[in-house]
Amino acid sequence: MKVDTLFRLDGRVALITGSSQGLGKVLSRGLAAAGARVVLNGRDQEKLAKTTEEFRSQGYDAYGYAFDITRKEETDPAIERIEAEVGPIEILVNNAGIQRRAPLHEVSDETWNEVLATNLTGAFIVSRKVAQGMIQRQRGKIIFTCSLMSELGRTTTGPYTAAKGGVRMLIRAMCVDWARYNIQINGIGPGYFITEMTRPLAENPEFNAWLMGRTPARRWGDPEELIGALLLLASDAGNFINGQIIYVDGGILAAL
Ligand SMILES: NC(=O)c1ccc[n+]([C@@H]2O[C@H](COP(=O)([O-])OP(=O)(O)OC[C@H]3O[C@@H](n4cnc5c(N)ncnc54)[C@H](OP(=O)(O)O)[C@@H]3O)[C@@H](O)[C@H]2O)c1
Predict the structure, then answer these.
(1) Is 186 part of any domain?
(2) pLDDT of the residue at 195
(3) Is residue 11 part of a domain?
(4) Owning domain of residue 219
(5) Mutate which of 148, 195, 203 to test ligand 1's pocket (most atoms within 8 Å of Cβ)?
(6) 255 found inside a domain
């Protein structure tokens, strides 16, 4: 057994949705550093081009494809182009996600639909198309960015919690349908990491005090601390891990 290459991804094509910034960007850098050819994504062309250029200037094999994961008419052709131009997608990271905070009784239909469309349905739309190729090739890794809200509620995060809880069961549903084709479907579950999405929380002293009390490790996570779990699930090291979520949360889910 070659332990030194167990986590390597040399030449494998990885599509990471929502990777023009935030956790997706850091996760993509981790995959690229392990040898993957990374396909970056987001809706904003300019931001995506800037991130792709940054990766290339760092010597990574990176490509940018802008599309909105909630729109099948954009995602299906984009995935076909990626597979024709970069190569068959071996690793898909369903990472794009949004948060809209309000108590549930004040959530509009538009907000509910927007959050569910992005965080749950969009991931399904992309996975369905990518899995069709993976099934033909009898090989693939699908990894979701989950959340503590895949397990627990928190006030003002109702649509997000419903969507991320749905993702937890979508992982299991995909596993029972697709594991037979040598596709591994799993999730990483970040605790609290500072990104554009969580910056308002990080800048709120009251929230910070609550989080330090609630997190056994007594700190925010550094996004790079997610890379180890991702590489386990994206590489041959995880070939018999299926339907699981690995939480990287400083112990939050272990504590009451
Ligand atoms: N930050 C945390 O502490 C934390 C904790 C737990 C889970 N998460 C999860 O981690 C993931 C990334 O979060 P983040 O904090 O890195 O967020 P972020 O900084 O807001 O980045 C979100 C990314 O997703 C893209 N995106 C949003 N909607 C999209 C769509 N419809 N189609 C394609 N791309 C889209 C954005 O680019 P455009 O705006 O250009 O489309 C951006 O690149 C999310 O699933 C989130 O729920 C984050």
Answers:
(1) yes
(2) 87
(3) yes
(4) 3-246
(5) 195
(6) no
Q: Is residue 252 part of a domain?
A: no
Question: What is the pLDDT at residue 197?
Answer: 85
Distance, CA 129 to ligand 1 centroid (Å)? 21
CA dihedral 151, 153, 157, 159 (to 10 degrees): 60
Lowest mean pLDDT among 41-55, 120-134, 200-214: 200-214
Instruction: Specify the number of domains making up the chain.
Output: 1
- Is residue 53 a contact partner of residue 77, using CB atoms and an 8 Å limit? no
> What's the pLDDT tens digit per position in 113-128?
999 999 999 999 999 9
- Kindly give the number of the ligand 1 atom that is closest to the alpha carbon of 71: 31
Query: Which ranges of the chain does DSSP label H, i.e. alpha helix?
Result: 22-33, 45-57, 72-85, 109-116, 122-137, 158-178, 199-202, 205-214, 227-234
Q: What residues are in contact with ligand 1 under a 6 Å CB criterion? A: 17-24, 41-44, 47, 68-70, 95-98, 118, 122, 145, 147, 190, 192-193, 195-198
Which tens digit of pLDDT belongs to each residue from 156-171?
999 999 999 999 999 9
This prediction has a pTM of: 0.98
Q: Residue 142 belongs to a domain with what CATH number?
A: 3.40.50.720
Q: Among all residues, which ones are annotated catalytic?
A: 160
